[in-house]
């Protein structure tokens, strides 16, 4: 039996990304690649990274504490906490258990949920778990909380500029300003080796970059197809990208987002969607109508032609979603929701009544297309308040640009620290803002200890729960 909850979805959001970042333009020079390769070729501007005092646990502690404080949520009101992450710090102990410290303080240990992991998809799995719980008969009337937290780092080579780091927290409940249109979910799941992390001694993935791009586009086609069929069965009319006010993609790097939107446009062309594809564009795409799907993924001419005809719609439906992913980089599980945060930041005044289509992709592979219906919401869960609390512009501006040489030094240090025990960090919190959690040391039993940057007057100690 289902619960009585209506319009279940995201009530509130907060985002945290590390204050250290490297400019892609400077990285191009440092890496000795041709000018424009990372900035135009990949479409990225800036990349955030964790220094030795931050990790996925500290970022998630920071963002959860911040969300509860900023929206004035009593920790006792959380009944389910789900974490999505692909950054492995412990093969058994979930990140969720770390976050329980925040709730234990208030006496609330009655919180379901653990971590979900499959590459960049874990956050979506966590979100679905929370939404399904609120819509189910087991719901006890309290909020769900979803946390997506990842640090994306790559070995030296072409994938390195597609890193990033962030944590996002989303409060889940009924009567949400960002509510699920649950009937239209379309998924595509399959077994492939496009990006995976088989070496447990290393934080870096094994990645077949070209294959991962094709897998992403194939999954997109498949999800869109199922999504459209479900919509059409339910609504009795054709769905096209014209019915979406915004399309939000998992964003490993912006160029793939540009190609993905063009791919949806090409799908609409093949499906004869006259609302999307005008006569002139139809003529431009006509030479590619007979390609097999395999050929269509390899055709550079089709890629160029579809990007060109989709350009205007891209500007209105996708561009406003790209701010944080371009500035912070791939945040793995948090990437899709950082793109959602970007459109809320850019368009919160006009979003009410609109539809946002989301595409979640995790290598390996798992993928789903789903959609949100947006309304103004009521304070404190209004779009305006969400935008104000996330305060994206201020957080982006407050960052510190680090030279590539320093970034590489940090990565080298982290290679040694990954899986290590018995060390003390620099505890240098000079770049962190007040309220940010940081790693102080790891003891001889691999137990990790964190503290919170105080305002100079008081400091709250956080240990391993004792
Ligand atoms: N100016 C402008 N553009 C340039 C320049 C230049 N000087 N030099 C190269 N480019 C363009 C290329 O033409 C190419 O564009 P295109 O895709 O439109 O053809 C783009 O820059 C990338 O260059 P390539 O040489 O094709 O690719 P590269 O070997 O650098 O690798 C890749 C790029 C595959 C994305 C790599 O960074 C990678 O493996 N990243 C991780 C995998 C990934 O993110 N996959 C996505 C889905 S899975 C996930 O989310 C983790």
Overview of the molecule:
The chain is an alpha+beta fold. It folds into 2 domains: 2-177 and 396-463, Thiolase/Chalcone synthase (Peroxisomal Thiolase, Chain A, domain 1); 183-377, Thiolase/Chalcone synthase (Peroxisomal Thiolase, Chain A, domain 1), CATH 3.40.47. It has helices at residues 24-31, 37-41, 56-70, 95-104, 122-134, 209-235, 254-270, 279-285, 293-298, 300-309, 311-317, 323-328, 335-347, 383-390, 392-397, 404-417; strands spanning 9-16, 20-23, 46-48, 78-84, 115-116, 143-152, 164-173, 178-180, 186-189, 195-196, 206-207, 246-249, 355-362, 366-374, 400-401, 423-424, 437-442, 448-452, 461-462. Strands 1, 4, 5, 6, 7, 8, 9, 12, 13 and 14 form a 10-stranded mixed sheet that branches. A hairpin with a 3-residue loop joins β13 and β14 (366-374). The protein is globular and about 65 Å long.
What name is given to the CATH topology of the largest domain? Peroxisomal Thiolase, Chain A, domain 1
Oligomer status: single chain
Shape: globular
What is the CA–CA distance across the termini? 40 Å
Structural class by SSE content: alpha+beta
The CATH superfamily of the largest domain bears the name Thiolase/Chalcone synthase
Bound molecules: acetyl coenzyme *A
- What number is the mean pLDDT? 96
Uncertain segments: 458-466
How many domains, in number, for the residues?
Answer: 2
Tally of extended strands? 19
**Count of helical stretches:** 16
The biggest sheet, with number of strands, parallel, antiparallel or mixed sense and barrel status, is: 10 strands, mixed
CATH domain class of the largest domain: Alpha Beta
At CATH level 2, the architecture of the largest domain is 3-Layer(aba) Sandwich
Beta-strand content bin: 15-25%
């Amino acid at each position: 039996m289902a619960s009585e909850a209506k319009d279940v979805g995201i009530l509130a959001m907060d985002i945290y990304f590390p204050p250290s970042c490297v400019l892609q333009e400077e990285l191009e020079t440092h890496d000795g690649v041709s000018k424009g390769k990372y900035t135009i070729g990949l479409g990225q501007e800036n990349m955030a990274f964790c220094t030795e005092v931050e990790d996925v646990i500290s970022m998630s502690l920071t963002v959860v504490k911040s969300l509860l404080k900023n929206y004035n949520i009593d920790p006792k009101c959380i009944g389910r906490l789900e974490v999505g992450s692909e950054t492995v710090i412990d093969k058994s102990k979930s990140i969720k258990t770390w976050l329980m410290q925040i709730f234990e303080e208030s006496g609330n240990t009655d919180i379901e949920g653990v971590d979900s992991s499959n590459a960049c998809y874990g956050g979506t799995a966590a979100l679905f778990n929370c939404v399904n719980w609120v819509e189910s008969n087991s719901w006890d009337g309290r909020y769900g909380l979803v946390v997506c937290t990842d640090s994306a780092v790559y070995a030296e080579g072409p994938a390195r500029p597609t890193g990033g780091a962030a944590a996002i927290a989303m409060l889940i409940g009924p009567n949400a300003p960002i509510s699920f249109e649950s009937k239209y979910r379309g998924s595509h799941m399959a077994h492939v080796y496009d990006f995976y992390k088989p070496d447990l001694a290393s934080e870096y993935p094994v990645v077949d970059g070209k294959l991962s791009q094709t897998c992403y586009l194939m999954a997109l086609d498949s999800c869109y197809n199922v999504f459209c069929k479900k919509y059409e069965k339910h609504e009795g009319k054709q769905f096209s990208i014209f019915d979406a006010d915004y399309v939000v993609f998992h964003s490993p790097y912006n160029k793939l987002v540009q190609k993905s939107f063009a791919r949806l446009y090409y799908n609409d062309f093949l499906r004869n969607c006259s609302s999307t594809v005008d006569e002139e564009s139809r003529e431009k795409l006509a030479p590619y109508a007979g390609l097999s799907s395999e050929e269509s993924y390899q055709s550079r001419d089709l890629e160029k032609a579809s990007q060109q005809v989709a350009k205007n719609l891209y500007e209105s439906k996708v561009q406003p979603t790209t701010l944080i992913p371009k500035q912070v980089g791939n945040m793995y599980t948090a990437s899709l929701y950082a793109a959602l945060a970007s459109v809320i930041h850019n368009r919160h005044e006009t979003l009410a009544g609109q539809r946002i289509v989301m595409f979640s992709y995790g290598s390996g592979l798992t993928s789903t297309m789903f959609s949100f219906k947006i309304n103004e919401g009521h304070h404190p869960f209004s779009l305006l308040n969400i935008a104000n609390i996330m305060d994206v512009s201020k957080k982006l501006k407050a960052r510190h640009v680090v030279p590539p040489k320093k970034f590489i030094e940090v990565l080298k240090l982290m290679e040694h620290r990954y899986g290590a025990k018995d060390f003390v960090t620099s505890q240098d919190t000079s770049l962190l803002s007040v309220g940010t959690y940081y790693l102080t040391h790891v003891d001889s039993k691999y137990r990790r200890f964190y503290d919170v940057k105080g305002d100079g007057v008081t400091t709250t100690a956080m240990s391993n729960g004792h």
